[in-house]
Automatic annotation (TrEMBL):
<protein>
    <submittedName>
        <fullName>Glycoside hydrolase</fullName>
    </submittedName>
</protein>
<dbReference type="InterPro" id="IPR031158">
    <property type="entry name" value="GH10_AS"/>
</dbReference>
<keyword id="KW-0624">Polysaccharide degradation</keyword>
<keyword id="KW-0677">Repeat</keyword>
<dbReference type="InterPro" id="IPR017853">
    <property type="entry name" value="GH"/>
</dbReference>
<comment type="similarity">
    <text>Belongs to the glycosyl hydrolase 10 (cellulase F) family.</text>
</comment>
<feature type="domain" description="GH10">
    <location>
        <begin position="200"/>
        <end position="498"/>
    </location>
</feature>
<keyword id="KW-0119">Carbohydrate metabolism</keyword>
<dbReference type="InterPro" id="IPR044846">
    <property type="entry name" value="GH10"/>
</dbReference>
<keyword id="KW-0326">Glycosidase</keyword>
<dbReference type="GO" id="GO:0031176">
    <property type="term" value="F:endo-1,4-beta-xylanase activity"/>
</dbReference>
<dbReference type="InterPro" id="IPR008979">
    <property type="entry name" value="Galactose-bd-like_sf"/>
</dbReference>
<dbReference type="GO" id="GO:0000272">
    <property type="term" value="P:polysaccharide catabolic process"/>
</dbReference>
<dbReference type="InterPro" id="IPR003305">
    <property type="entry name" value="CenC_carb-bd"/>
</dbReference>
<dbReference type="Pfam" id="PF02018">
    <property type="entry name" value="CBM_4_9"/>
</dbReference>
<dbReference type="Pfam" id="PF00331">
    <property type="entry name" value="Glyco_hydro_10"/>
</dbReference>
<keyword id="KW-0378">Hydrolase</keyword>
Length: 572
């Protein structure tokens, strides 16, 4: 069990924002790290670059300090042999001195001018912060672990370091076990007659009607006029979608004062007609290049007025019709509104406005590279959590429904880093959605897509997935699921395969009741229709029963969902 720590409104496991006076023990006993808790002096450790390193002890805790740093990479290091095809989880506890709130990155040098970042943390002074991440390597190699920071004036303290290898088989096994635990529930059905006597050898057919887990794909306005696109999309059993561009400010108000939501309205009608939930994307985009042309030249006062009008218009128009809004898109990488409004917490203010206009819809942050890239210090999980805290601490925002949106635009996946980052974010207890999943085109595109989908679906914190593959005749943004004749590409085959495997496509389970009338199975969460057939029963196959399979509440200590079916007593 991981220790839980309470921190300013969020409940974090040791991997969130909590900063401890004493670090925890190294995970997995340190794995393949030599002397992970520095109990044996500096055995196994050496300096990297030109730093000076010292072994120190404080309050029964031993650690290593790298000081007198002149280069970003000056620190402590250890050489380790990494094997191709293994997946490595990494963790360490970090503290800094002569500075505070400083990003520190764990990096592996894997060859001449070749480096792999395993993860980063915003380290603090006088307490220990948990750095959690991971890596894989393209070839077996003797690598060198070290820690780096752009702030060369700080001292870097390191303790409880762990590097644990897993085989691909072990990693996949964990995914399967987690899916069984968090996406499925054991179901126990008993069939009896009107007298309460068990009916044995009855055929029980359980058909899923509505899966609970939202998995879908983005669409664009082409779907309104292309029947091939419509037929392919609606036959996939997607349950959620996002409009690629049609709700964005530059689409709905291309010229100042002339709003046009007609295309977005038509797309929303299409979605509703096909029982698709819709995520609103987006109210604002913090990237300067994606502002409506006329917004860029507005004064601070006029921009504030235009932003208020935009938010009230968009959020108010679709109130009660969407399951989510991406309120300020990519505000870790970009700061258009913060810079133009002369307001360092412009994002927090915009979320405040959104909560007031629609308090029932979950308002998401939406950012890229938080789980894709260990080397992007702007969007690492610790920075994401800082932004969440800034928004929640703004007056009036404490009770707002907030969500974590992760765009997930991948080149190649670092699954250990993905899992570690999701662990950190999930410790908030907020819903996490994969909002724009795609993979850069390469010979391994479909393979990587499957790996990523399996990883995120198996994580308990993920509450929904949207694939970013809206079709255009000239090509999708980065990844398509079909060709222009709407025949599946390998990526589309991956999606179909996994949806079938995860019970998201007309899942039907058939079994027989035993001598005591019982039948048990494990079902994915969702709504089901149950039919009973038996040679001795008249027309019993026409009778149906409803069954809702949901996650079990741990406090009840139940091990399964039960359904008692009493069948008609009329016999042939």
């Amino acid at each position: 069990m991981e220790e839980r720590i309470i921190c300013k409104g969020f409940s974090f496991v040791s991997g969130g924002l909590a900063c401890l006076t004493k670090p925890h023990k190294a995970q997995y006993g340190g794995g393949i790290i030599i002397n992970p808790e520095l109990d044996n002096g500096l055995n196994g450790w050496s300096r990297f670059g030109y730093a000076k390193i010292e072994h120190k002890e404080s309050t029964d805790n031993k650690f290593v300090v790298a000081h007198s740093r002149n280069q970003t990479y000056d620190s402590v290091s250890q050489k380790l042999y990494l094997r191709k095809n293994n997946i490595y989880t990494f963790s360490a506890w970090i503290q800094v001195r002569k500075g505070n709130h400083v990003p520190v990155t764990a990096t592996f040098k894997t060859g001449h001018n070749r480096f792999k970042q395993a993860g980063s943390v915003v380290a603090q002074s006088h307490c220990w912060s948990f750095l959690k991440g991971g890596l894989t390597v393209d070839a077996s190699v003797l690598a060198e672990l070290y820690f780096e920071s752009n702030n060369t004036s700080i001292d870097i303290w390191v303790d409880s370091i762990s590097l644990q290898p897993f085989t691909q088989k072990q990693w996949r096994s964990h995914q399967y076990k987690t899916i069984e635990k968090v996406r499925k529930t054991n179901v126990r059905i008993r069939v009896v007659d009107t007298r309460g006597s068990p009916l044995s050898n009855a055929t029980i057919s359980i058909e899923q009607k509505n899966p609970s887990f939202p998995l879908g794909c983005a669409i664009n306005k082409n779907i309104l006029t292309n029947t091939g696109y419509q037929n392919w999309f609606t036959s996939r059993r997607f349950t959620v979608t996002t409009f690629e561009d049609e709700m964005k400010w530059y689409s709905t108000e291309a010229t100042p004062g002339h709003e046009d939501y007609s295309v977005a309205d038509d797309m929303l009608r299409f979605a509703k007609g096909n029982k698709l939930s819709v995520r609103g994307h987006n109210v604002f985009w913090d990237d300067p290049q994606y502002q409506p042309w006329w917004v860029k030249s507005l004064s601070a006062l006029d921009l504030s007025s235009a932003a208020a009008k935009r938010l009230n218009s968009a959020v108010g128009r679709y109130k009660g019709q969407l399951i989510a809004w991406d309120v300020v898109n990519e505000n870790l990488h970009h700061k258009f509104f913060e810079s133009q409004l002369s307001n360092g917490n412009a994002s927090a203010m915009l979320y405040n406005w959104a909560f007031r206009v629609d308090s029932s819809t979950t308002m998401f942050l939406n950012e890229y590279n938080t789980i894709e890239s260990p080397g992007d210090r702007l969007a690492m999980p610790a920075q994401y959590l800082n932004m969440l805290r800034e928004i929640q601490s703004f007056p009036g925002n404490a009770g707002g429904k907030l969500g974590i949106g992760l765009e997930s635009h991948f080149s190649s996946p670092n699954l250990a880093y993905v899992r570690s980052s999701l662990d950190i974010l999930a410790a908030t207890g907020l819903p996490i959605w994969i909002t724009e999943l795609d993979v850069q085109k390469s010979p391994n595109q479909a393979k990587y897509l499957e790996e990523i989908l399996r990883e995120v679906y198996s994580h308990p914190g993920i509450k929904g997935i949207v694939i970013w593959a809206a079709w255009k005749p000239q090509g999708c943004w980065q990844m398509c699921l079909t060709d222009n004749n709407f025949k599946n590409l390998p990526t589309g085959d991956v999606v179909d395969k996994l949806m079938a495997e995860w019970g998201l496509r007309n899942d039907v389970v058939i079994g027989k009741s035993n001598a005591y009338g019982f039948y048990g199975t494990s079902l994915f969460h969702g709504d089901y229709q149950v039919r009973i057939a038996h040679p001795q029963l008249k027309n019993s196959s026409t009778s149906t029963w409803s069954l809702n399979v949901a996650p079990l509440v741990l406090a009840t200590r139940k091990r399964s969902t039960s359904l008692l079916i009493q069948v008609p007593a009329s016999f042939n």
